[in-house]
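SEVERITY: medium
COMPONENT: batch folding queue
REPORTER: lab tech (J.R.)

DESCRIPTION
The queue accepted two submissions in a row. Attaching both inputs and their returned structure tokens so the on-call engineer can compare them side by side.

ATTACHMENT 1
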Amino acid sequence: MTGAVHIEIETRQLKLKEPFVIAGASADEKPMALVRLRQETSGGGVLEGLGEASLSIKSAESFEKNLDFLHNLPEDLFDDPTRIKDIADRLDRLERGCRPAKCAVDLALYDLNGKMLERPVYNLFDLEKHGVPHSFVTLCLGDEAQTLARAAELRGQDYLKVKVDSAFDLRLLEEIQSISGAKLAIDANESWQYDEAVEKLNHLAERVDLEFCEQPLPASKVQDQRKLKQAVPVPIYLDEAIITRQDVELLAESCDGINVKLMKCGGIYRAIELITRARARNLKVLIGCMVESSIGITGASHIAHLADYLDLDGSSFLAWDPFVGTFLHRGRVILPTGTGLGVIEKKHVQ
């Protein structure tokens, strides 16, 4: 027999090595909520599941709202921590949003369940640890000199994702590809309008071999997104527009693939639902991330076998990551050993 599950919530401030700049937003630090689920074992020990809530730097929803949601969870929510689907459904009935907070709970539950069963989380889904796709590494917005210098630093990476906006000089993409030798994707983070996207993507298709263009148009431009897919030869992946299973159904004819982020959809359980729905509509899948600690990155990496592409470099932007988990080596995704998520908290706190 095991004892009751108790939740503890902490806040941490994650400082970045340098400003993370995308179209319409930038940050040099960001808050995270750390969730600990603790359960006493029959042998007198304690199992601990770790979860994280980290919001997008573009989020219209506040960190404080997510934190308040976590602090006001029902006392009986974790009476049976093995019922992850039921807990996820109950959280959705309590609150439509706060998906990063729900992700923190989901991650902590999977971590705890894996430790209870003495199995890594990927093994709970009969997935493998090795042979997952290599990850993109992100090239943020900057001036021309910064951009090309960073591309040179990233020489040897298999995949680069370049952040762009309306002011970005697309001619740089040819130089970036030449300097880095990497396969490229671009991410406009909703910063283009329809006519602009048609012109730019048709122009790029003649000069640069792009894996895809991510979220070129504002998520609200549903009809334009459908037209754009038919008007350009570059594969279109949607990110900000895809949050729920219903979004996949609504926009399946408007894209070639979707970006699934645990923080955006509510955790591993909801991510698998999105991926399943996307596959049913013959869509490709990119598993991505926010700027977040190794808890979130590691959680996503446990389902990496379900993706065509990965973009899991979010923790690499941190000046100091409080946790050790999945890391990238020249784009290769290295999962930790151990049960549950396999994440270890560092002793020293900065």
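ATTACHMENT 2
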Amino acid sequence: MTKGKQMKKIYIAYTGGTIGMKRVGGTYQPVANYLQTLMSENPAFHHPELPAYTIHQYTPLLDSTDMTPANWSAIAQDIYDHYDEYDGFVVLHGTDTMAFTASALAFMLDGLAKPVIMTGSQIPLCELRNDAQGNLITALLLAASDFVIPEVALYFNGRLLRGCRSVKVDADSFNAFASPNFPPLAQVGTDIELNRQAIRPLPPADKPLQLRPIRASSKVGALRLFPGISARLIENVLQPPLRGLVLETYGAGNAPVKNGRLLDVLTEAARRGVVIVNCTQCLRGTVDLSLYANGVALAEAGVVSGYDMTPEAALTKLAYLISLDLPVAEIRRLMQEDLRGELTRP
């Protein structure tokens, strides 16, 4: 544990990712205890303005492409188990699937009253020129902020984003993440400027944190439409044991309906109880199933609107709700309701 003059204590859940990788044989790889060594040798991580922090290294450390829903639930369990001991949490994670994990944690940690800040980097801390140091130090400061941020958020390159609104938009730039349909929770430059109106309010004082793990990961999926997609392909995807599908459609939520077979496939699956959620492929904007005839046809087939949810949020929310063993009608209703700030209804 590194001690700072502030009283707050932060728990760092180090799951892996680029931030702590080492170049081995010409490629970056996660190496156990390497990040901690770099931090212990760097005076910046001993600055008196930093909060006290404890690093819990996961075994094995993972490239985020190897993350599974079981790992999401393990991270949520780790936060839950240490919730009363710490004032805030930082989750170090690879960037490729960070938005999925951030969304999943937002749903699983019901009644969250402390900050959970996810971060990582595009260049590891071991390199002279990197974004790792700034991201990690700022994430620690945000997790220890006197103004409590009671939600899962993602900090990267000067912006704090709501976790279940974030998407990775750039494979190369330090500005790797965006929140296309919701403003940042904070902007970080010469000062840390919190957008207090955008930050979710604290839950009632008498509401304890509840952990609701995702257990239905194998029962949900996602499918991106493309010109010429066959009804047969969609029909195959919708076969049991699938119980939920995020259908990534065009524009305001449209799909090809001239071939009635595609609508028949969706209608039959919906009648079987498969929850089909319509999310737009567009980076910005919302699904409106009343705007075009093709969208109306989807709604009549039993497809429900995901409004302006990211596909990452829609997929993890669907897995979360199915894990609660709710009736299908209730899952469909809740997919269209705002639970953690993940969507805005028109």
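NOTES FROM REPORTER
The first helix runs from residue 34 to 40.
No errors were logged for either attachment.
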